Amino acid sequence: MNCSAEKSSRKWPYGVFGGKEAAMVTVAAVLLLLGAPVEPAAARKAGQDPWGDLFGQGKPKLRGAMLPGAVPLPRPRPAEAPRDSNKVDTDKPGPEQPAADKPASAGPDKAAEPPAPPPPSACRLALTEAIAIAPSIPDINGAGGCGGEDLVRLEAVVLPDKRKVTVKPAAILRCPMASAIADWIRTDMAPLAASLGSTVSDLDNFDSFECRGRNRVVGARLSEHGRANALDVRSLKLANGQSISLTDRTVPRELRENVLRSVCTRFATVLGPGSDWYHEDHIHLDLAARNNNYRICQWNVWDPLPQVAPLLPAERPEEAPPREGRANSE
């Protein structure tokens, strides 16, 4: 059947093929189905695509190889260049827009203030200057639980008649312990001194706060002195110059026993002569907390020392009768 060029162009919209080209397409299609490579004669020419312009689209252009290279960056803006007036400054808030990190009502920045001190304790409020001169001092937080809170420096006890008993030296104590010492002096020791015809003027403080173990023994448990909860007393001095030494055996026994009954009633621990050989020259007082309010009162009020005869004999009175030995010798 004869096909005209017009009909052929309708069947092949991409152009009219001649006999040679049609044969090449047929052979190429068969070889592709069989998996064999095809190298037409036209491909022998250097630089020519072996398939030619099969569909009339022209030879595809090959892209150049992509090689790594430095990306060009814009030049830095000179310092003297004017700012772009069209650029919106997002760092600053608008005239009606408050700053994001600051409330609209916030005033000028203020320096950080230290935390407010805790309110005074009930003991601190009760220990007024009408009872004792005891200014508050900062808390002490030492190693091993040493120190304490609600501390005062007991400088003097004020008697009901407004006279002062000076604590020498001033004692560092917890407020409850200082209050107990003041009440003991005002209620018990002032009347005792009045019975002797005088008044208490000084309190001899042997030891108060000291960060140490019991009896100053290395490795011992923390003493109540280390908690500012104890006071060692040697004596009470009177305004007339007399001194009541609590451990002096020359002081009348009855007087020392009165002091013993007073302190053992008021304090949780009382240690004196005969307790543990560490308190032979002073009296230890503290408010140690124990189960069931257990108390310790160990203070032996020794009898006065016996009168010792003099080493040398006294002179013989003239009216004394002669010795028998001397009379016999005559």
Strand-and-helix sequence, N→C?
A: HHHEEEEEEHEEEHEEEH
Rg computed from alpha carbons, rounded to a whole number of angstroms: 56 Å
Largest sheet, described in full?
10 strands, mixed
Judged by helices, strands and strand pairing, the structural class is: alpha+beta
Oligomer: single chain
Can you tell me the overall shape? elongated
Intertermini distance: 201 Å
Query: Percent of residues in helical segments?
Result: 10-25%
Parts with pLDDT < 50 across at least 5 consecutive residues = 1-17
Q: Average pLDDT, to the nearest integer?
A: 78
Number of helices: 6
Report the sheet-strand fraction.
15-25%
Number of strands: 12
Describe it for me?
The chain is of the alpha+beta class and 330 residues long. Among the domains are: 5-43, no CATH class; 122-298, no CATH class. It is built from six helices and twelve strands. The strands form two sheets. Strands 1, 2, 5, 6, 7, 8, 9, 10, 11 and 12 form a ten-stranded mixed sheet that branches. It has a two-stranded antiparallel sheet with strand order 3-4. Helix 4 (175-195) packs antiparallel against helix 5. It is elongated. The relative contact order is 0.07. The model is unreliable at 1-17 (pLDDT under 50).
